[in-house]
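Lecture notes, unit on protein representations.

Consider one protein chain, 155 amino acids long.
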Amino acid sequence: MTDMKEAIRLVDNLYSVERIVSAMEKEPKNYGTEELLYSNEVHTLKMVAQYEGITQKELTGKMFRTKGATSVMIKKLEKKGLITRKEDEKDARALRLYLTEKGEWVHKCHLKYDEEVIGSWLAELNFSREEIAGANHFLEKFICYIEKRMSCAEQ
């Protein structure tokens, strides 16, 4: 059985990380275009790049957002010329999301930015490969567990 004090400490740390990430997301950055973009915008682009042709409904689930929040985000990114919606060939009611050429450029700039920033953090923190792998293992198990619970709650 897991030590309850350590488990509670872990959950408290996850909340701290959530607050830090939330604060970081409030600062828009330049990702290779004339306009500044927020973290949630470039991470939405990243998801569309990873799942080319994803539907808005699928994106909502993967991003843990409401339908309304996803709709607003899609409209923003479309207005900025970063994504496009195309009708599904088999189901005209379904719209599939794709990056535009500009969206692909921003996505590549975002990945480069992340590599540089995360690389500098890792250099300063001096984490071992095993520490990073252990953290990833924990987080992946936790995410999988939560995703399963959330999908059960939606049914």
